Structures are given as C-alpha cells and as structure tokens.
Amino acid sequence: MSPTANRLRLSATLVALVVALTGCAGQSSEQPGEHEVITVGLRFMPDTITVAVGTTVTWRNGETIGHTITSGAWGDVNESTGLRGEQAADGLFDHALAPAGQPGDEFSFTFTEPGEYLYFCQPHLTMNARVIVEE
Description:
This protein is mainly beta and 135 residues long. It has one helix and nine strands; from the N terminus they run H-E-E-E-E-E-E-E-E-E. It has one helix at 3-22, and strands at 36-40, 43-45, 48-52, 56-61, 67-75, 86-97, 106-110, 115-120, 128-134. The model is unreliable at 12-28 (pLDDT under 50).
C-alpha cells in the first residue's frame, strides 16, 4: 500500500475515533429551514442547495465543535472514507462558526451571480458541499 493510501486510512481512523470520543457527530433533530444549511455529524445538511440569484443562504452550526464555511474548490474525495484529498480556498467567503449555541454560530452570504459555488470546512475533510445559484 502506498504512503498516501496509508495516510488516508490513518486519517479516516483518527476522524472516526475523535468523533466517537467527543460525540460531536451525534445526529441533531433540527432540520434546515428554507435557504439554510446546518452542520450535523461532520457534514453539511443539505450538501447541495439550489437558490435563486439574490438569495441569502445562512449556515448554522448544529454541533458542539467549531467549523468553517470556506468557499473554494475541493476534490479527490475518497469513496470509502468521504475524505477530500484536495482543497483550494478562493476568498469569496471564509467564516469560522462558533460551536452551537454560542455567539457567532451562524453565517450568512448573499449570492448575486448565477453559478455553482463549492465550499468546505477547512479542518474537517468530510465536510464538502455546494450552492447552486440559478437565474
């Protein structure tokens, strides 16, 4: 097995261990509202949201750990682990979400141009999502 494959396997194991020990991936009973994304179980829910130009999308942290909402490309997602192998912030937005229930646990951004906007959480390699903006 290659060194890269070994690192990915070790990373996936460590992520699973941390999640199990901290309980941060517990499922929330909350459901996202219209034009809203919630962090749950080290994922964005929903992972794809489609909105019209001029819509403000709000991200809300549903977990007891911090996350980022960082715009930019991501790729090379491992089918077995869900871990991304690549990320590149593009500077459109980059916001640190405080843990749920603390000041700063929400972030909003208004999309003024049509297109597909990828984003991710910098420290959590399983958190990859997109906003599709239509005319």
